[in-house]
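Forwarding these from the shared drive since the link keeps breaking.
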Amino acid sequence: MIMDRFERQVMLPGLGKEGQEKLRKASVLVIGAGGLGCPILLYLAAAGVGRIGVVDGDEVSLSNLNRQVLFGEKDLGKNKAEQAVAFFQHKYSDINWFAFPEFIRVDNASQLLKSYDLIIDGSDNFPTRYLVNDACVLAKKPLIFGAVYQHEGQVSVFNSFRNSCNYRDLYPNMPAATEIPNCAQTGVIGVLPGIIGNLMALEAIKWITGLGKILDNRILFFNSLNSQSYEVEISPQYQSRAQAPQDWEAFQQMNYELACEGIELLDWDEAFQRAGHGTMLVDVRELDEQPPLVCSVLFKAPLSEFEGYFDQLEEAEALFFFCQSGIRSQKAALRLKSEFPDKTIFSIRGGIDALKSSQFRNG
């Protein structure tokens, strides 16, 4: 009875019962249950992948709903990995699901990756992409990559064979997160991550079954404004690979956020825990931006007039910068760090948007 739902793909030339059995025996770990992760999970599950893990420490917010199609209003404030798995457990009884309600980090990456055949990165920031890539290289795991920026998306398959490229070959130099913002800053039409996520799922199915030709040492670009796509060949960049950690011990010493952004990032919980005498919480949003934050150590220094506040900022022993989503605060923190290199400066990850899910939001 269960096999009936795969009838249409089993009859497909090149896949057949053998390919379907490979899907049933396969295990895939999806990093991120957001705009890319949702369509990836939908079609991996529909195709019959036997074991699927979902890693995401984020919670569903209202602004997610235009593209993160697994969630609805009833899911607001709940963990994405757990809600995604709950959605599918009621839908497909023949798949083993595992939710990991945490972000992937240097101290948990090895454990998360080790029991899966294939890794798919649906994250939306550079530190995580480099972290996942380096972990996959060390663990010798194939990695399917995808990304979206405004009206363009890209897809590739890394680390599949001995001579395969990886993410560091595509982007040898770590860009700062402030250079290319994510969809929280630039916006996105929900259909585009849907298209790119489906292409990533297709590459996963091809990799598992041997159907067709995967995007090995090639990257596919798709433009949603003109519906055109093109491919670019990539080749190993050995100098950039030398900058990657060469073993797990070196990997666990990496600070990918600091390497990409030059400023250490903290969650709101960490910021409140570290705050003390001489601390200044700096809001770099413009004065008319909402919602306001009320705090005894709050100092407003709008980014448009930022340099005019240097004298007051210099007086603080430690500064915690924040904005609406976390990009402008990094720019402000970097600017002040260049002026006062010995000062303790942090940027709060996710800005005010992330405060909604902090355990301290009512305290």
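-- next protein --
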Amino acid sequence: RRFDVDDISREAWRSLAEEPLGLAIERYLQNDLVCGLAMTDAKVGLFTQPHDPSLVQNRCFLYHLIGNKTGEWKVPVGGMGGVARELEEAARRSGAEFLTGIRISALGLNGKSPSVEFEMVGKRQTIEARFLLLNFGPNVLAKFTGKPFQPDATDEGSVFKINMLLRKLPTLKAKKYPAAEAWCGTFHSDEGYEQMNLSYEQAAQGRLPDKTPCEVYCHTLTDNSILSPDLSEQGYHTITLFGLDAPWRLFARDNGTVRKEAEKKFLASMNQWLEEPLEDCLAVGRDGTLCLESKSPVDIEDSLGMYHGNIFHDAPTWPFATTKTQRGTWGVETEYENVFFCGSSAQRGGAVSGIPGHNAARKVLEAMKT
């Protein structure tokens, strides 16, 4: 109803919720680079394209734009570790207890009091709770319940991450941009609109694209507290490369070989703009290895259990109720009593929005009153 008050609102609803996002991008934006810049927010982490009939690109786009009601992205001081520490300290002050290094062996979900069976330091233990919050995806839940997991084609992850520690920031070939200015914010490479349409087509054919679209973020230019004072004084920096059009399917058969090939391609994408290659600017560890870490969708699934390396757990859902049964719910409910999703796979929540955690907490508070 809010989007049916005037022509502008109706056009916004049509462009974002009813038709493929590519139509709006091509209707309102003319410059190929600007079109590509808009489209990156619609496909980061997902294997999709502007005219995808599933509209998963629209949903991804919305989650990247609703932050702070302006779409503004902020850098957490101290890194994500700082955010986690603050949450931990607040929870401990309220009496929470944390157990780490455990392996869950079974979940008891059929009674009013769910239980978790786990192993810690070689000892098997079982605890019961009034509520159980799940911060993993439905694929992991299916493993514990023994029920079949039926993924959608849009659930496949598409991401290639390279984390790097640099001795110095690389110099650009374009001399008019100082290094600190060029690397502040987001550095886009091979992310033009038509270029990404081509890279999507090539990846869909089962091969790494000739030109691999990617973007780089330098956290330490905004917040150097994540480095030791010694490294910071010496001019060290951390940068993260996020590669697109690198779906799980490309790495599934021979992850090690394809990961190495992808790493070379993504670094080459960045090096085309640099006076000196990124590899020459990397810090060297005590063991003599370069301070660089690459992760494919297969690596992400193996280490974190995210289905096919999907950083959102599964395809993002709309940030509003789409069926009558969803109305009046928090979107975190499961088929099991007092068992709720609190992570990205919850309905009407996902990405880095924090919405599912908030909604799970509200659901618990609501249930405690009944």
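The first helix runs from residue 7 to 18. The chain has a mean pLDDT of 93.

- D.
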